[in-house]
Every structure is written in structure tokens, then in C-alpha cells.
């Protein structure tokens, strides 16, 4: 079974080696660094794309207290850091596993392979293949992998929206059946969401996106409507902060196909309160920003260094002070004359490929 091509093409040309150097967050009150890698501590390899067009590099990470695991698909290895110091390097090639996702839970590190095998890293640095979930899932499009309290959650993109499959880490019975299938993409055990793009005119996206927050039983908790002067091509729901505001990562795109990723806080009246631009990346990863144990983290892999930062969403700059870098001369006009406003479910966080601009009309 082959993995589907990632939604973003690689932004790099040629192979390169980037040494990770310690660096501070752009704005201290907005984020707190939990891991900054220096030259003596790590060298991070990047390549271009594989034969299927999939970019390689820092693909995924997981945070478990002071332990941080980083999956580097360029060299097919997992680096595990303990309190900022490298603890182990798991070379997946030794176990005939090609890693695509990593997760941690209660001190254990888990790996999802491109063959849809689920493995656990043992105390002696080896891999124990637990089972394979390929025949259980209805699709290959996996975009979220979590382990919470000894249960494995895998969110996938299906034709009628995202679904989350829950498996047990206890495979003593030898069965691989999902314990349950939950509607939506997982945020935590009790919270899930769907993102729906609202198309306009000849485009299959528009200036509006609806994020529906769901309870575990599928009932609707809230519905948040996002707006933009540009095309909204995706949205990732990240939960709520201590101020009670929603946290959302929004993907906007102008007609030059430039994408801008922002982290936003939205109040109970659905007004945008704070807004900051997500950090620039050498390789665009769907796993750059994620929520772990109620906290929002951001992986930054840039020429200046590599870090994992905790985003202090309560301290984001006011939305009014945010200035977009998208081309203001290429802002899409609203297609008010069209009657085609059929909603399209955005089942992955970044929907640039699904929301390709079919025609440009001015």
C-alpha cells in the first residue's frame, strides 16, 4: 500500500544539511522554547523529494513532559531528547520501518510506518511492531496520530469528512479491530472537529470556512465561521486557552498561490482576538502546529535553527495589528453572481491541493 502524496510540494532544491543552532522565539511573550538544538547537539539532514513527490525532513514530533521525540524522514530516524539533551537515536532502517508519524504517551514512544504498522520503542532502543492497521482503515489519507492513556488514535480523511479510529495498545488478544470510529479529527479524547470550505463561483474554496467542534458522541459543541479577504484553504482547530478563547490555525491563499499560515484566538462571539504568523519552515509539514495535553506547540525548522516552542496563545498580538503578507493586488473577488455554494468538507488541515483554483476570473 502506497502513501498518498503530501499536499505541499517541497520548497527546497537539492540536498542540504542544516545544523541546528539555539535561537530565541521571535516574540518572547508569544512563545516559550522547550527545545532548541545547538551545533554540538544535532545536525539535521534534508533532501528534496522521493519518487512519489513526498518531501523529506523534520516531519513530525511529540512532547511528553520534558521528553521530546522528533521524526526526521530524510534519514528515517527518531531523535529522543530528555530535558534538552539527546537520549537516543532510533534508526528505523534497522527495523525495515519507514516512519511517517510519531507519538508519545506515559514515557513510551510510538511510530506509525508508511505500511501502516504501529510500533513501540522499547527501553533498549529497539522497535516492537504491535500490529498493522492497513486493513482496518477505509483510506490511506492519515493526517493525525496520537496515543492517549494507552489508546491509539488515528485520524483519516474520508469522502464524507474526517474520522478518527481508536485502537488499544494492548494487542494480547491478537485482534486489530478498532475499538470505535469517531466522527471528526481528534483534538483530545473528548473533542473532535470538522472543517468545511465554502466554495465560491468557479473555485472550490472561498473566503469562508466553517469549523464545527464536536463531542465524542458526534453532537455539535459549537460552530465557528472564519472569514478572510483571501481564499481560506484550510483550518486546524486546536482547542481553547485559559481565557476561554478558541485557538485555530488558518491557511489563507492569494491568487499567486502563496499560502499564509496564522494562529488565531477567537472569542465566544466568534470575533478574532489575537493573530500571529506561524513560523517560516524549510519544509512545510502538516504537523508543524499541534495540541498535546492541552498545550499548543510549534516546530520551527529554519536555516537559523531548529526548535520546539510552546505557544502562549493568551498573549498573541491583537488581530488589528496583524498585517498580511499576501499579495493585496491578487485578492480574489467574491463570486456573488454564482449560485454554486455547495460546502466542501476539508478533512485535512491544509487543503491547498483540494482547493486548487480552477480558473482566475477578474
What does this structure look like?
The protein has strands at residues 16-19, 31-37, 43-46, 58-64, 67-72, 77-82, 85-91, 99-105, 108-113, 117-121, 127-132, 142-148, 151-158, 161-168, 180-183, 185-188, 191-198, 206-215, 220-240, 246-253, 259-266, 272-277, 289-292, 295-302, 305-311, 344-346. It contains no helices and 26 strands. The strands form six sheets. Strands 16, 17, 18, 19, 20, 21, 22 and 26 form an eight-stranded antiparallel beta sheet that branches. A four-stranded antiparallel beta sheet has the order 2-25-24-23, with no helix packed on it. It starts with 15 loop residues before the first strand and ends in a 16-residue tail after the last strand. It is mainly β and 362 residues long. The chain is globular, with a radius of gyration of 20 Å.
- Our Rg estimate from Cα atoms comes to 20 Å
Q: Distance between termini?
A: 43 Å
DSSP strand content: over 45%
The averaged pLDDT comes out at 79
Total strands: the figure is 26
Shape: globular
Main sheet overview: 8 strands, antiparallel
How many DSSP helices?
0
What structural class should be given to the helix and strand makeup? mainly beta
* Poorly predicted spans: 1-28, 39-43, 332-341, 347-362
How do the SSEs run, as a string of H and E?
A: EEEEEEEEEEEEEEEEEEEEEEEEEE
Q: Which bin fits the share of residues in helices?
A: under 10%
Task: Give a brief rundown of this model.
The protein contains no helices and 26 strands. It is mainly β and 362 residues long.
Amino acid at each position: 500500500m502506497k502513501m498518498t502524496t503530501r499536499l505541499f510540494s517541497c520548497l527546497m532544491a537539492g540536498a542540504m544539511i542544516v545544523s541546528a543552532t539555539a535561537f530565541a522565539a521571535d516574540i518572547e511573550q508569544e512563545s516559550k522554547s522547550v527545545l532548541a538544538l545547538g551545533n554540538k547537539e544535532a545536525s539535521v539532514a534534508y533532501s528534496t523529494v522521493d519518487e512519489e513527490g513526498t518531501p523529506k525532513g523534520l516531519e513530525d514530533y511529540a512532547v511528553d513532559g520534558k521528553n521530546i521525540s522528533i521524526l526526521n524522514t530524510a534519514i528515517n530516524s527518531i531523535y529522543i531528547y530528555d530535558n534538552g539533551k539527546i537520549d537516543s537515536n532510533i534508526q528505523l532502517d534497522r527495523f525495515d520501518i519507514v516512519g511517517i508519524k510519531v507519538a508519545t504517551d506515559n514515557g513510551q514512544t510510538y511510530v506509525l510506518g508508511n505500511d501502516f504498522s504501529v510500533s513501540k520503542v522499547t527501553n533498549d532502543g529497539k522497535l516492537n511492531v504491535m500490529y498493522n492497521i492497513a486493513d482496518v482503515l477505509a483510506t490511506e489519507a492519515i493526517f493525525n496520530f496520537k496515543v492517549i492513556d494507552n489508546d491509539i488514535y488515528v485520524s483519516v480523511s474520508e469522502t464524507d469528512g474526517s474520522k478518527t479510529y481508536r485502537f488499544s495498545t494492548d494487542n494480547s488478544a491478537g485482534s486489530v479491530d478498532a475499538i470505535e470510529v469517531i466522527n471528526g479529527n481528534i483534538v483530545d479524547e473528548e473533542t473532535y472537529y470538522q472543517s468545511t470550505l465554502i466554495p465560491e463561483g468557479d473555485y472550490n474554496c472561498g473566503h469562508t470556512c466553517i469549523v464545527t467542534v464536536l463531542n465524542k458522541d458526534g453532537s455539535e459543541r459549537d460552530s465557528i465561521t472564519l472569514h478572510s479577504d483571501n481564499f481560506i484553504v484550510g483550518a486546524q482547530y486546536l482547542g481553547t486557552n485559559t481565557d476561554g478563547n478558541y485557538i485555530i490555525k488558518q491557511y489563507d491563499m492569494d491568487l499567486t498561490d502563496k499560502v499564509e499560515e496564522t494562529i488565531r484566538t477567537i472569542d465566544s462571539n466568534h470575533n478574532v482576538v489575537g493573530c500571529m504568523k506561524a513560523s517560516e519552515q524549510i519544509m512545510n509539514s502538516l504537523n508543524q502546529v499541534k495540541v498535546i495535553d492541552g498545550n499548543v506547540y510549534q516546530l520551527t525548522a529554519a536555516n537559523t535553527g531548529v526548535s520546539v516552542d510552546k505557544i502562549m496563545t493568551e498573549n498573541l498580538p491583537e488581530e488589528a495589528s496583524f498585517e498580511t503578507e499576501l499579495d493585496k493586488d491578487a485578492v480574489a473577488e467574491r463570486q456573488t453572481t454564482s449560485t454554486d455554494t455547495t460546502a466542501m468538507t476539508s478533512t485535512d488541515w491544509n487543503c491547498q491541493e483540494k482547493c486548487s483554483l480552477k480558473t482566475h476570473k477578474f
